[in-house]
Design goal:
Elements (H helix, E strand, L loop, with lengths): L2 H15 L4 H11 L3 H6 L7 H15 L4 H5 L1 E4 L2 E4 L9 H17 L5 E6 L5 H9 L3 E7 L2 H14 L3 E5 L4 H6 L3 E6 L12 H4 L15 H9 L4 E10 L5 H11 L4 E6 L5 E8 L7
Parallel strand pairs: 3-4, 3-6, 4-5, 6-7
Antiparallel strand pairs: 1-2, 7-9, 8-9
Helix pairs in contact: 1-2, 2-4, 6-7
């Protein structure tokens, strides 16, 4: 079977199973460790038997709704390679935009000196590691309630050469206990309402503790907003990912719990409300 024949065969199977057809080529590119244009040069050649077996086996798992990142054992994020498994959320492209927004605001508000940052509920460590690697002035801490998630995050930090201090505990509690104060607090907390229907590839394979945020999806934002003053410096900002349909509820929550703060909700590349930035003690933050 040629590469072309294998791709066409599994594209049809994907269409029948409701899996995006482009997954086939994406998986083959990773499996062969080739750039896509190089793969096209060999498209009419016969696929080596060992590779065909691995490809067929992996595609079988993907057709059963298992995420491609779990089949591979890793995911790419902001150009960095991260181990992923059932203990951590697979990092999404939208979250790369959050990282870019954080980095831009660090440059704007903290142009000199060390910047103390913390990523609350770090999961795989993707956000913390990316921000730390992209901005050398950042001194990054990261927390998670899941010890197994922290094992993965520590390995990702080591693999990517990032210096992160990991703290175990629920939300802001380990930060309060440490007594440290931060310039930047980052979090991509669980924000899916408890009763929302999700795709099987998400619900069956990704940790529910990283997905669901209580009845309305805002449980963990409430926890952070109510306690954040204890761990933030006088001049600081917070950066969050949020649900695309939570603009009104989120705006109301920020106004109620942090009336002195300025905030903005930023759209992602698809035009959906996805990022929340909250500014405390930063003059003219929205100008």
């Amino acid at each position: 079977m040629t590469f072309r024949e294998a791709v066409k065969k599994y594209e049809k199977k994907c269409e029948a199973c409701g899996v995006p057809a482009e997954t086939v080529l994406a998986y083959l590119v990773e499996l062969t460790n080739q750039e896509r244009y190089n793969l096209y040069l060999h498209y009419e050649e016969e696929m080596p038997e060992e590779m065909l077996e691995a490809f067929s086996s992996g595609m079988g798992r993907i057709l059963n709704q298992e995420p491609m990142a779990h089949v591979l054992g890793y995911s790419w994020f902001y150009g960095y390679k991260f181990i992923v498994n059932r203990e951590v959320l697979i990092p999404r492209p939208e979250t790369e935009e959050l990282c870019a927004g954080i980095l831009a605001r660090i440059d704007r508000f903290f142009s000199e000196g060390t910047v103390q940052c913390v990523d609350v509920g770090t999961g795989s460590g993707a956000i913390a590691i990316t921000v730390a690697l992209e901005e050398p002035r950042v001194c990054m801490d990261a927390t998670d309630i899941s010890e197994t998630a922290l094992i993965t995050a520590r390995q990702n930090a080591e693999n990517n050469g990032a210096d992160i201090t990991f703290l175990s505990g629920d939300m802001l509690r380990p930060l309060e206990e440490s007594g440290k104060k931060y310039d930047v607090l980052i979090s991509n907390p669980p924000y899916i309402p408890q009763e929302e229907v999700m795709e099987a590839s998400v619900v069956d394979f990704e940790p529910h503790v990283a997905l669901f945020g209580g009845e309305d999806g805002l449980k963990f934002y409430r926890m952070i907003f109510s306690e954040c003053r204890k761990v933030l410096k006088e001049r600081a900002f917070m950066a969050f990912e949020m649900g695309w349909n939570q603009r009104e509820a989120m705006s109301r929550l920020v106004r109620e719990t942090l009336p002195e703060a300025e905030f903005e909700i930023v759209k992602d590349m698809n035009g959906k409300d996805r990022m929340l930035f909250v500014y405390i003690g930063l003059e003219n933050a929205l100008k």
